[in-house]
Amino acid sequence: MKRRDLLRTGLLSSLGVFAIAPLARAEDIMCVKGLTPKQTEGPFYPIVDQVDKDADLVYIKGSSQSAIGEVVIVEGFVTDQNCVPVKNALVEIWQACHSGRYNHAADPNTAELDPNFQYWGKAVTDEKGFYRFRTIIPGAYPADVGWDRPPHIHFKIAALKHKELITQMYFAGQELNGKDLILQDLSADDQKRVIVEFKNRPDQQHPVGQFDIQIRKLTKT
């Protein structure tokens, strides 16, 4: 079924949102108006289906081994341009593993793949627009001569009556951020919207980064 059909029928609710405990609180939503900037999808969007594509990329279903790398929690709220929460939005992420390689046939990187990393995951926002993933900080990798891409995660967000958004999230404090041609192509304000600081939190075992995403609600003309 196409993504639009899944959203319409509500079947995506079965995908769930990873480990929402405690539930998102209304006071956690501190929305500042400003659409999340779109960025390139890149050449490594998943084209081969995988058995496990839930919101926990650290463990693959049926395996007792965890992925290599520093585990982090990525969470946030999806809202529209008026700060209204977007319920039942499909949030997809895909990324490289710890070595900087994607599980994609078109990736020329010869670094080692991690057989215990999921590479691609999905979550559906709750009634407050909240989503959560558990993953690892991906490795940097060479993009061109003299240009290494910093650790980043690709996002695709789709919701009925909203414009689909493809963007990327970056990790604060990474030296390569200031040299990345894709990130630096954004304005200073837009860079702040996609660079996330990760902090320790008493309710989570791993550092948490809050990546709030604002998409455009379509209006009738």
Written description of the protein model:
This protein is mostly beta strands. It has one domain: Aromatic compound dioxygenase (Protocatechuate 3,4-Dioxygenase, subunit A). 8% of the residues lie in helices and 25% in strands. Strands 1, 4, 10, 11 and 12 form a 5-stranded mixed sheet that branches. The chain has a 5-stranded mixed sheet with strand order 3-2-7-8-9. The protein has a two-stranded antiparallel ribbon with strand order 5-6. The radius of gyration is 17 Å and the shape is globular. 37% of the residues are buried.
In short:
Helices cover 8% and strands 25% of the residues. The protein contains 3 helices and 12 strands.
Unreliable runs, pLDDT <50, ≥5 residues?
1-27
Overall structural class, as computed from helix and strand content, comes to mainly beta
Beta-strand content: 25-35%
CATH superfamily: Aromatic compound dioxygenase
CATH class: Mainly Beta
The number of helical segments is 3
The share of residues in helices is: under 10%
Assembly level: single chain
The number of E-state strands comes to 12
Write the CATH fold name.
Protocatechuate 3,4-Dioxygenase, subunit A
Summarize model confidence as the mean pLDDT.
Answer: 89
Q: What is the chain-wise order of helices and strands? A: HEEEEEEEEHHEEEE
